[in-house]
Amino acid sequence: MDKRIEGFSKLTKAEKIDWITQAHFKNPTTAESQLSDYWNSDSDLQNKHDEFIENTLTNFYMPLGVAPNFLINGESYTLPMVIEESSVVAAAGNAAKFWQTRGGFKAEVLDTIKVGQIHFSYSGDVQLLHSFFNKNKTQLLESTAPLSKNMKARGGGIQSMELVDKSDLIPDYFQLHLRFKTADAMGANYINSCLECIATELEKLAQNEFKANDGVQLEVVMSILSNYVPECLVRASVKCPVSKLSPSKDWPGETFAKKMVQAVEIAKREPYRAVTHNKGIMNGVDALVVATGNDFRAIEAGVHAYASKDGHYTSLSNAYIKEEVFYMELTLPLALGTVGGLTKLHPMVQWSMELLGNPDAKTLMKIVAAAGLAQNFAALRSLVTSGIQKGHMQMHLLNILNQMGATQIQKEKAITHFKNHTVSVKAVAQFLQNNNS
Ligand code: MEV
To answer: Could you give all domains of the chain from N- to C-terminal order, each with its CATH number?
Structure first.
């Protein structure tokens, strides 16, 4: 059957499924029931999900787990985490418990500035452009008044707008670089609407201004927010006397603290390690970002750009020992929202928000940063002590058992057995062979 199709998006859901399964699957009936098995029996709820994106056929489940005992700025939180990696929630919970008895996490928002840019080309005298911009700046900003009214009432709005000459990079390339505050919204729609409004006004004013000047042209290329937000920053930290840092009886606090600092030093200087180190941080960050309906691609892009802000990719976290006290901290750019987007639409996002006590955007930034730091601490703790595979494979045991079709009784026996034995695919297969009931 032909795998190309015209007008797919115009078909009904049933027609789409029919075509997809006929054209792409060996057994269309099985493929179709795999899709319908994941529909929600409540058709209103299913419709809601269908309408999030185009061409929805079914739902794709991810587990939502919780990590309790997070003490952040003296408040206790249970974190909702959406993630498929088996060891992440357990690691978060362990780190939270460890720090709960050592003062907990401290977190502070350093700033909440977001950025948007209008990229345009201009051929003409640069001084002329500067005086045109200065003359019309107020009018350009005022053109957004209807869009900004509510945002201003909530304490947000445009904070600054600058003309930037980038013609050393690309001939005739200039920008209007705008800084925004968006209160509790992530703000993408507000920022992009303001930018498009100013861009239209800019072209209109430029046409009038430059029409008499032969050859002088100003043309907007595009207007869009930036996901690079180095001024939308939150810092989370933990500290405790080195003597109280011991993670187990085999590891005195002094030895452990020194190894943790060494591990972070390596990530600061060695990009291969830094990427994995930061990936561990993002295990905690993304799980919460997804659970709270925020845009994890935007967060990922912004965080990794920030990790290379000084010209080389480095660790996002820092650790040091000063006067016998161990310090670990994490600074992240996090443009998060607690209103708008999916927050009112997705029932599980609402549930997650309620679990967190319906935080405002700044509080959510602090919680997410603490989750990232907890995850980083947990990963390094395993890496510098037992190694990562022991805990990781323990958590992965159920996945391996399920893949091998183990019965409930076999699973229970295996969990007991592997408490004292190393988990590997081979060892689990052998165990199932020896315990085949
Ligand atoms: C695995 O998802 C994350 C780690 O690799 C992080 C790290 O190495 O720091 C364990």
So the answer is: 8-50 (no CATH), 64-108+232-384 (3.90.770.10), 114-226 (3.30.70.420), 392-434 (no CATH)
Give residue 344's pLDDT: 86
pLDDT score, position 215: 79
How far apart CA 338 and CA 341 sit, in angstroms, is: 9
- Closest CA relative to residue 35, chosen from 59, 55, 1: 59
Q: How far is the CA of 277 from the centre of ligand 1 (A)?
A: 6
Model confidence over 173-210: pLDDT tens digits? 999 999 999 999 999 999 999 999 999 999 999 999 98
How far does the centroid of ligand 1 lie from the alpha carbon of residue 370, in Å?
17
pLDDT in tens, 67-109: 999 999 999 999 999 999 989 999 999 999 999 999 999 999 9
- For ligand 1, residues with CB inside 6 Å are 85, 276-277, 279-280, 283, 379, 383, 388
The token duo for 409 is: 């009784």
The residues that bridge with 4 in the sheet, in sequence order, are none
Verify whether residue 295 is a known catalytic residue: yes
d(CA 372, CA 72): 13
* 413 carries an active-site annotation: no
Active site residue 277: no
Q: pTM (2 decimals)?
A: 0.93
